[in-house]
Hints:
Layout: E1 3-8, E2 14-18, E3 23-30, E4 32-37, E5 40-45, E6 48-52, E7 58-62, E8 69-75, H1 80-86, E9 95-97, H2 101-117, H3 122-145, H4 148-168, H5 175-182, H6 186-197, H7 201-216, H8 223-229, H9 235-246, H10 250-256
Antiparallel strand pairs: 1-8, 2-7, 3-6, 3-8, 4-5, 4-7, 6-9
Helix pairs in contact: 2-3, 4-6, 4-7, 8-9
Amino acid sequence: xxxxxxxxxxxxxxxxxxxxxxxxxxxxxxxxxxxxxxxxxxxxxxxxxxxxxxxxxxxxxxxxxxxxxxxxxxxxxxxxxxxxxxxxxxxxxxxxxxxxxxxxxxxxxxxxxxxxxxxxxxxxxxxxxxxxxxxxxxxxxxxxxxxxxxxxxxxxxxxxxxxxxxxxxxxxxxxxxxxxxxxxxxxxxxxxxxxxxxxxxxxxxxxxxxxxxxxxxxxxxxxxxxxxxxxxxxxxxxxxxxxxxxxxxxxxxxxxxxxxxxxxxxxxx
Length: 269
């Protein structure tokens, strides 16, 4: 989390052209405006959100007769693109619509308030609100891309698969085994899982294992014990997968690991 804020803009208030080195999302609370990204123009209004990705040239300007009011939040991190991808958001699809503006506005408010108060643990609390915000966007995108009569059923199937993987990650797992256990066709489950999360079931399993391994490496377990604890019978293979995933071997990660406190003060644009 970097900052959060809100504003009622003046007529034809313009930002850009500019390129940022962090992610920034705005949600339009009222009024209208234009957003330009990747050489494409979007006409936006109440309930629309637009996402700015690092390195993308963007411009946005409020309407001359109905200038928009919006809330925003800025963030950065190695997993930012991953979370946005899960919600179906990318530089080619930077705009999403929601009919739950009240819910989104409440989350933005809590984010901004948490950062302003800067109490102990505010970084974790703000991060939690941000994940909830991503979850809302993911559901909105899912409703756009999946017929309404099928969305709830598919979401339940995928969530069931996610829970199963989260509980069984330390066991030998195959997509065939998971589909058979959950009672779904392998191809159907894989397709719906990828559509919902942006990852295949096996990619998601690897992500769970690697994230768990990072936590365990901060403790006293040996590399072999960590490998076994996250479902790898071969410590050498685990080390290769860990380095491929994070760019550092488990030993290097453990050596370099240090705590960096976050600055929770925040600032407004």
